[in-house]
Amino acid sequence: MRTFRWIIFSGGGLVAVLALLWISPFGWAPMRDGAPYEFQLMDNRFSSASEEAGVLLQQARLDIGAPAMSVAVGYQGQLVWAAASGWSDDENGLAASPDTRFRIGSTSKALTATGLARLVQQGDLDLDTPLELLMPLPNPDWAPITPRQLASHTAGLPGYDENRDMWGIYSSLCLCHQFDNVMDALEVFDDTDLIYVPGTDFHYSSFDVNLLSAAIQEAAQAPFLEIMSREVFEPLVMQDTGADHPNRDSSFDAVFYERRGQLIRPWRDVDMSQKWASGGFVSTSSDLVRLGLSWLDDDYILPSTRALFWTPQVLDDGTVNEQNYALGWRVGHSTRVFDTEHPVAIAHHGGVSKGAMSFLIVLPEERLVVAININAHAEEFTDFSAVWADIARMFLESGQDLP
């Protein structure tokens, strides 16, 4: 255990300060009108679907009330369409493009799961090895936890709301500390107790994946971000994906916004290095589609690895966890693309970050991938993500007519 740090603040006082910042009249302004639209069509056979989806995208952005919205689609191994509507920087009138990068929040968990899958299929990491055999642990209660339990949120770690590590509570709210090593970031929650015996229950927590990234780093004997670059970003040519931190090249990043009714203002500066693996990557919709397509590439993710990572995990009593969560992915079936008579299998993950929302969904049987991003928060996540099904249907119907 690390030495406890005394933080001079009162819980009520901190809440009051945050509330005052929220209701402050400074900085709020209406969004610009006349939003631009840009698209890239990589396969002219989808021109009709591109036109329909573009109209839908522009209307969805208006309905959500986000300055910018980006969507990309991949089909049968190829990125076929990418588009963006609105302003990446509303105040300065900079148009969003398919190359605009967004914070992707917990969609980062699917990226981390991809790196984990590569290590597992290469024999560099066993999912069922207890952490005490993999790495030095700042909390002895973590000793029996396995990478499988961390990747499936069955490890017993608390979430942000249950964290009793006083330094960690402050750090999670502040997001103002730079962690250069994922091992160091464990101090955000290493002084709090488990909330159940590992393997006996399910509780979705970003702390699971933060600890998993440290296990990945120790098993591969390389910094976590280097592993992600080597195993994921470089082979998949995800050139616009990386860690979110204050010193990164942000020239292609969207400005991230708070919303209050019809008003917006830029989100305050934050440092996301305490949770890169669970919620701290930036990316484009096109890069997320490339990641989704990689899970349908048998040369990159072996069929046996895909089956392992896309199987909902069971608890010690033999029941499937309550969210049908697999390893870094949620899996199931959706009737929204067609109807209740024609459900489609899906693997997906969404994310909410500071001034952004993200959603990545893979339809493995149809070999279709859709990714969506915005640079604000919708009222409800489903308000933002719902457009995926209509866009998927448009491209699938066009794909059925292809020679």
Kindly report how far apart the N and C termini lie: 63 Å
Strand content: 15-25%
Q: What name does CATH use for the topology of the domain at 27-123 and 237-400?
A: Beta-lactamase
Structural class: alpha+beta
Number of β-strand runs: 14
Please state the average pLDDT score: 92
Low-confidence stretches: 1-22
Radius of gyration: 21 Å
Write out the CATH superfamily name of the domain at 27-123 and 237-400. Answer: DD-peptidase/beta-lactamase superfamily
Explain how this protein is built.
The chain is an alpha+beta fold and 403 residues long. The chain has a domain of 261 residues: Beta-lactamase (3-Layer(aba) Sandwich), CATH 3.40.710.10. The protein has 12 helices and 14 strands. Strands 2, 3, 4, 5, 11, 12, 13 and 14 form an 8-stranded antiparallel β-sheet that branches. Strands 1-9-8 form a 3-stranded antiparallel β-sheet, with no helix packed on it. The longest helix has 18 residues.
Q: How is the topology of this model organized?
A:
Elements lengths: L10 H13 L5 E2 L6 E5 L5 H18 L3 E8 L2 E12 L4 E2 L6 E2 L4 H14 L25 H5 L14 H9 L31 H15 L3 H10 L8 E2 L13 E4 L2 E4 L9 H4 L1 E3 L1 H10 L8 H7 L20 E5 L9 E10 L2 E8 L4 E7 L6 H5 L1 H14 L3
Antiparallel strand pairs: 1-9, 2-4, 3-4, 3-14, 4-5, 6-10, 7-10, 8-9, 11-12, 12-13, 13-14
For the structure shown, list the relevant keywords.
Beta-lactamase; disordered N terminus; 31% helix; eight-stranded antiparallel sheet; 12 helices; alpha+beta; three-stranded antiparallel sheet; 403 residues; 14 strands
